[in-house]
Amino acid sequence: MSEKLDKAAQKAITPRAKDYSEWYQDIVEQAEMAEHSPVRGCMVIKPYGYAIWELMQKDLDARFKAKDVQNAYFPLFIPESFLKREAKHVEGFAPEVAVVTHAGGEKLDEPLVVRPTSETIMYDVFSRWIQSYRDLPLLINQWANIVRWEMRTRLFLRTTEFLWQEGHTVHATEDEADDFAKQMLEVYRSFAEDIMAMPVIVGTKSDSERFAGAVRTYCIEAMMGDGKALQAGTSHMLGQNFAKAFGVKFLDADSQEKFGWQTSWGVSTRLIGGLIMAHSDDKGLVLPPKLAPHQVVIIPIGATPEEVEASQAKAQEIADQLRAEGIRVKIDKRDMRPGPKFFEWEKKGVPVRVEIGPKDIVKGSVVAVRRDTSEKQTLTEEGLIDVIKDLLDQIQSSLYAKALAFRQERTITVKDYEDFKNKLEGNFVLAHWCGSAECEAKVKEETKATIRCIPFEMPNEGSGKCLYCGKDADTAVIFAKSY
Amino acid sequence: MSEKLDKAAQKAITPRAKDYSEWYQDIVEQAEMAEHSPVRGCMVIKPYGYAIWELMQKDLDARFKAKDVQNAYFPLFIPESFLKREAKHVEGFAPEVAVVTHAGGEKLDEPLVVRPTSETIMYDVFSRWIQSYRDLPLLINQWANIVRWEMRTRLFLRTTEFLWQEGHTVHATEDEADDFAKQMLEVYRSFAEDIMAMPVIVGTKSDSERFAGAVRTYCIEAMMGDGKALQAGTSHMLGQNFAKAFGVKFLDADSQEKFGWQTSWGVSTRLIGGLIMAHSDDKGLVLPPKLAPHQVVIIPIGATPEEVEASQAKAQEIADQLRAEGIRVKIDKRDMRPGPKFFEWEKKGVPVRVEIGPKDIVKGSVVAVRRDTSEKQTLTEEGLIDVIKDLLDQIQSSLYAKALAFRQERTITVKDYEDFKNKLEGNFVLAHWCGSAECEAKVKEETKATIRCIPFEMPNEGSGKCLYCGKDADTAVIFAKSY
Description:
Two copies of one chain form a homodimer. By secondary structure, chain A is of the alpha+beta class. Chain A has helices at 2-10, 20-30, 47-66, 80-83, 87-93, 119-129, 174-195, 241-246, 270-279, 305-324, 338-347, 358-363, 384-409, 417-423, 437-447; strands at residues 34-36, 43-45, 70-71, 77-79, 98-103, 106-114, 138-147, 161-171, 200-204, 216-223, 229-239, 249-251, 257-259, 261-268, 296-300, 329-331, 352-356, 365-370, 376-380, 411-412, 428-433, 450-455, 464-465, 472-473, 475-480. The two termini of chain A are 33 Å apart. The interface between A and B is large, with 60 and 60 residues. Strand 5 (98-103) of chain A pairs antiparallel with strand 5 (98-103) of chain B.
């Protein structure tokens, strides 16, 4: 696709400071990650974007399996009546479902909802899988597509159809279920921070922000490059709400029949949107090495066919050594000038670019450029592999440190509600809240800020005054605008 | 799930000779692979069945990537008007689509079809991705769920929703496209034979059996344990049919604008049905080692807690060594008698069972049992790992050889049409065919046999007489009843 890319390379990315939303859209487009489809609100995930999703899946899937979670697959369609069995659940999801009314040329007796999430269809099945306490815990995960009819969509962040995983578990006791929901939150935290290099705040959602049907929603919240919050993953303690609606019961060791305690938890292709906004800059995408489809791109350079051949041979040699160490390497052998190649791989966020030309070969060295800092260095061939491995590790941790420092700078406290309104934009505000839904709703109405989470670890412990009503308040929360 | 499995272990599998269809259903159920869902025709793929699908995906995905095919993801929904653009395509698929008419609480302006296959939605997008011959070949694959409203369904073999991969490519020339369609057929053949241990006949479909919209459909056909045929994979040369309908054009090196030449190819969860029917027996599922979630199950045995502990320690030691060699091992430590464990893993088709008890530990040996032949042998601990690896290789090749011999026995020729009708049941009949759709239709109407394929390699080359009309015929084909 050289011609097309040549064209793309010439197209500028809107500066982030000028228009954040345009900047985001430009990066998604020019890094060839995704595009809008002819179907309203649905996206096409292009190969480069999908390759990032595959890396995310692989890492997460291994983490789930390490917790003894098993993958399975449940139907795309849910009978409309199932959705209605849990009152809060249907209230939350009914307005945004897509409905199949006709199939095989005939009108269906009962309309089928395209899954907006799979609690209802799975738990009906679970009610038959589980008889005894010996069948517990039941730990199931599904990788699937999901449909929620959204009015305003944005690639990766909010689309009518998206890809995700949804874990669903059943436990014998409340404590065990709550503990498992927290364990999965910790899986997400670790994935976000260690793999995506994206620091997150872990905590609980307020009642009005929790999942429709849950008793408690745990979440990880990340700060994006514009200071807004992104809910990056949630883990729900469902209590016995669905168990009672679907008859998920078991005979306990004490011969009593009891309802199961359940959890569900999920992350989606929305994470790719978070990844983009956590690290990227005005030159394009910046990827942490652990999620880069190509961790290193090698550009062989030469003015004559002989020089090109020599550079390519050296590139191949280095690539082979790097690959033997498990590093993902791309050699860009296309018949193009090096300049547009540099631009292209910069836009695509490849962490390390290695340039090899005739002079380098003579000197026994290469030129390496870090994507995150643009730092250019000449590296000797001796020990090169270890130096590049080190460089990748440095980039991974430096991206995390940079994002963390950014969030710390922008996590503020305020004197009062007036001060809050002035300083809200682009910040996380740590404030006390009396716990009333009314105060929460008023703040949202007046400022568009929501309670992103009630952090597990509260930096300003102790009591204070509610941001809105001024009454005594024990709970410290994060207020912010969000995606 | 010990209690439930204990119960399952007591339930008998219907003998294959008594009722093939019941036998199949019993295996799927008792090996806990899948079950019917509350949604008509849709299945729940249970963890054990899904684990087999994951192994299939992993192997196939690597083969596609080795051909430079890139994964991507396209919308689940297709505007109804798209489906209509290719005349044969809509004719083939319109009767079996599910249609979304309402979403977000409102009636849609244009109904959306749930994808029965993705040619139309992808090629509309491809028409914008491709401008120049430099953008070709475009090689895309998608792992996705598919919906086709089927009247009669059977777990894995024919379900309303199924999982599959669909590859879609665009090439500059007819020869290149045809060659690529054949390359992917070879990928499927090799996967079926080398990984599934399921011999297949490769060839071309007759015009009336080919994919709706294709110029030519290549296929792999396998013989199941009842002598019926299963279409296990297809690769379509689409010519320029869709390219013309969707404007998939490119500017060639000669500055002429030309339509692309396209292919599509796919295999689905149907392969799991084929896998079951190719190898299993009256004791349950038989899995080729390359697709077994557990290749070896180790059962530690002991009458006292001390004996159990010693057996488990030895089991762990052996498992660690096997895992270091990349072998998938399960240690069954459940507090149950060994008998039900043996039955359970037999039903689940685990290739090798290893039993370790106090006497074995004293003798420095273990007992190993092959699932396919039930052969029991005592193996000394010395060199055990290599012997087990060998055993797995033997099982893999022996399953293939057995299935091949079975098919060869049951691939017959006949004297005439009367003879054909008598011998058709349970056999592949190799016969000549004049090429007319009328003769083909008559045979189907009168005997329910279809032309499964026109094999690339014809064992009885040369001309003959058409099975039905008796006219001179150059083409030898396989007639059979099929799934």
